[in-house]
Design goal:
Blueprint lengths: L20 H49 L1 E6 L5 E4 L6 E4 L4 E5 H7 L6 H6 L3 E3 L3 H5 L10 H9 L3 H11 L6 H16 L7 H11 L3 H8 L2
Antiparallel strand pairs: 1-4, 1-5, 2-3
Helix pairs in contact: 7-9
């Protein structure tokens, strides 16, 4: 009897496509690098914009501070001029004789902290504010007025006795040397500029009282 042979069928598995792993990783890395570069550039742009905004705000605050703070024009009647300095020397402003200089209020606040007594010089009129309103801003009372108009009235509208009495009060009978020299140089300048015409008696008695010669003072003014 013949034997029947059965052939087994063999199923072939499909061949899997090989994947190029290195190529995929390279593409992914390139994509990540591009994204990172974009993020860095965006961050730099944001930082630049923020810096510009902060700078603009600082400039605006600085300008606003200057506008709000304001300034005063200060004049000097001290023959050799004056130097106004803060205690630490951060602020130092020179004002020549008969000159007027603009000083910010913040600078004046620092100057008035000095133990030198600048406020007293404003009270005595050897330093002065051009704008009278500035005196009240710093709680200063102008006790002596050495302005041209006031001295012209003093020398032109009073008797000799009254003039001597008033200059005694102004100079504390010549004990306040700063005040005395400011006053006599103011008088000499008014005489030189022919803003006052003193008669012989008034002029000679003033020269005798102060022990000065107005012609010598006038010569000093022209040096």
């Amino acid at each position: 009897m013949a034997t029947k042979t059965t052939k087994k069928s063999v199923t072939q598995k499909p061949v899997e496509e090989k994947v190029d792993v290195n190529s995929a990783l390279a593409e992914e890395n390139a994509s990540l690098k591009t994204q990172l570069n974009e993020m860095v550039e965006n961050y730099k742009e944001m930082q630049l914009q923020l810096q510009n905004m902060l700078l603009a705000q600082q400039n605006q605050v600085l300008v606003s501070s200057k506008l709000n703070d304001g300034s005063a024009v200060v004049g000097c009647r001290i023959f050799n001029g004056a130097t106004l300095s803060s205690p630490g020397g951060d602020v130092s402003i020179q004002i020549p004789y008969l000159d007027e200089v603009e000083i910010t209020y913040s600078e004046l606040r620092e100057i008035f902290k000095s133990p030198f007594g600048y406020k007293n010089m404003f009270k005595k009129g050897v330093l002065y504010f051009v704008n009278k309103d500035d005196y009240s801003k710093f709680n200063i009372k102008e006790e002596i007025d050495l302005s041209d108009d006031n001295l012209i009235d003093l020398l032109s509208k009073n008797s000799l006795t009254s003039i001597i009495d008033k200059v005694k009060i102004i100079t504390k009978d010549k004990k306040d040397l700063m005040e005395m020299f400011a006053l006599i140089y103011q008088m000499a300048r008014l005489i030189d500029e022919k803003k006052v015409d003193l008669d012989y008696s008034v002029r000679s008695n003033l020269e005798k009282y102060f022990d000065v010669d107005f012609e010598s003072l006038i010569a000093n003014l022209h040096q």
